[in-house]
Amino acid sequence: MSSVEETAPATAVTASTGPRSARSRVRRVPKRAAYDGPTIHAILDASLIGHVGFVAAGRPIVIPMLYGRDGDSLYLHGSVASRLLRDLAGGVDVCLTVTLVDGLVLARSAFHHSMNYRSVVAFGRAQKVEGDEREHGLRVISEHLAPGRWDEVRGPNDQELKVTSVLRLDIEEASAKVRTGDPVDDEEDLTLRVWAGVVPCSLAWGTPIDSADLLPGRDVSPSVLARRYP
Question: Which residues contact 203 (CB under 8 A, 6 or more apart)?
Fold first, then answer.
């Protein structure tokens, strides 16, 4: 799609092996930080919801939003009537964050309890997209939620496109932070008679439930079956 290729940003994230500025530098436990594209992209692809923070009318606002990634760009969408999206489309500085919890880290002391997690903080400016790129952005978001689903369903019609605003957030810089492993207890606490370790946590999808108005003979779609179920 030529319109998308022409407006795609330079690979600011994938080319980075360290923080691009103090804005994205991880200061607390910097050994857990990563600034490379593959790590950042993998975490963004594994998460479903990003929390988008910006300042509007002098007040900070953070809203959870669905998104989809295409290279170093994130697509967001919402109603054209949304004041928040209009504010975002005005070119304000945006911070998008995602966090995946991988486990509770339970130590022998209350102070050393923690979590194993993967997180990303990304900075950039959002801009409204139109034409072919607007539909491309909606497809990117749909495919992020359920790969293959876009080709199984009816695409958006002209009226649906008319009432939907799509924004592209080009990532100017980003950082990832990852914690793994056991609790780190003080040596003098190792003999305490209390259990310590990690309680794993993971996202699990349940068995698909038919819609109440589903017509007979409609099998579960391949994109749905591609998800892992118990």
Answer: none
